[in-house]
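INFO  loader      accepted 1 record
INFO  loader      residues=124
INFO  predictor   begin
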Amino acid sequence: MPWRLEFTDEGSIVKVVYEGTFGAEELRAATHEILSAMTERKTIRALLDCYEAHMDVPVINVYQLPDLYESRGITRHTRAAVVLPKDKYRLDIYEFYEDVCRNRGYNVKLFEDREAAWKWLQET
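INFO  predictor   done
INFO  writer      dumping tokens
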């Protein structure tokens, strides 16, 4: 799965850009790396840019993501902005992810454009 990670806004926001098609194993591996980077840098804000991505992940794997966050010590003060795929591919998975995270106390919000996502992350 092609993806890249960088820290922006003076290192306070992790920006992850996903491209292409990815499945459950790729998503889980990337998530572990991203969580490690966030923990190391002590950042609690993330921009997950899926604009050019196609996620083919079973619902059960999406459901388990907050368990992974909790086991890795990710605080519920974390804010994650998710930029949706431009073609709305598997929109149901993204909406389910937002619901599952919010139900577990994680502040995740979906956006159709990068600028709105970025602006939301920069709010106090």
